[in-house]
Amino acid sequence: MAGYRQYGYQYETSPRKIQPEFEPNKNPYKKKKSSLSKKSKSKINKAKQREKEKQKANKPKKQTKYNYKPVVYIGLAFAMLFTISYRYSLINEKYNEKESIKSQVSDVEKQNEQLQVSIENSLNLTSIEQEAKNQLGMQKLDNSQKVYLNLQKKDYVQPASEEVVIDDNQNWFDKIIEKLTQVIK
Predict the structure, then answer these.
(1) Which segments of the chain does DSSP mark as H helices, in order?
(2) Measured between alpha carbons, how far is residue 46 from residues 39, 40, 43, 64, 132 in Å?
(3) CA angle 120, 121, 123 (to 5 degrees)
(4) How do residues 101-133 score in pLDDT, each as one tens digit?
(5) 64-85: buried (b, 16+ CB within 10 Å) or exposed (e) per residue?
(6) Sorting pLDDT into bands at 50, 70 and 90, what band is 3?
(7) 85-102 mean pLDDT
(8) What is the pTM of this model?
(9) Contact 127, 121 (CB under 8 A)
(10) Which residues contact 106 (CB under 8 A, 6 or more apart)?
């Protein structure tokens, strides 16, 4: 509460400004004003201005520097967005292609199932008999068309005349020597 008595109550929101007690000294190194007249000062100023203008005319003009960084950053951002959108378009295109191939595969599978059902239906003996009667004009055999044969129960296979001997105990070198001895005799 002591702070309120000393400074008093303030009605605004900003604090009261306190004047500083320290005042800086004026610069002691500052040059004193010369006692030249106004005309001589203006002549000196004009001469200085002419010299500055001559120096400016003699110096080549500096090219103004253009800041390319924002343009480069904008270009890079645009390139990145373009590549991302291009990539997503490729992904979307491949996805659509995959979905169309899936639908084609499912259609082919349905056709295969239908063909399998029709093949199974056509493999029934009754359906085969109907096809034979209707399309080919075939009939079942009558007793008059049946012919009975009597076959002799004799074996017609002849036994081998030579006896085949397989000797696996000999190695290849022994076999070569045996063949050479047969050729020499």
Answers:
(1) 2-7, 38-58, 69-122, 125-135, 172-184
(2) 11, 10, 5, 28, 129
(3) 65
(4) 999 999 999 999 999 998 887 788 888 888 888
(5) eeeeeeeeeeeeeeeeeeeeee
(6) very low
(7) 96
(8) 0.34
(9) yes
(10) none
